[in-house]
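Backbone-to-sequence.
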């Protein structure tokens, strides 16, 4: 099993019971889930212009191939 990589996804949520939908991903790739989690608040602050009443963020595990494609890797 290789190293783990994480990307930070931003999701838009409505006021009703409908599920949140993926809107965007941060351009950074994180080497640990903790490093990704530490960026959630800042990522949500950068996304305040998105037209949803509620925004959520989630760290998602990705393969090394996806991480290499997606963007810069943080230590």
């Amino acid at each position: 099993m290789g190293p783990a990589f994480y990307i930070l996804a931003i999701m838009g949520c409505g006021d009703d019971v409908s599920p949140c939908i993926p809107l965007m991903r941060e351009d950074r790739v994180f080497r640990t889930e903790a490093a990704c989690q530490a960026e959630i608040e800042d990522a949500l602050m950068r996304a305040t212009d998105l037209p949803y009443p509620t925004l959520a963020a989630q760290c998602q595990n990705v393969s090394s191939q996806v991480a290499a494609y997606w963007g810069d890797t943080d230590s």
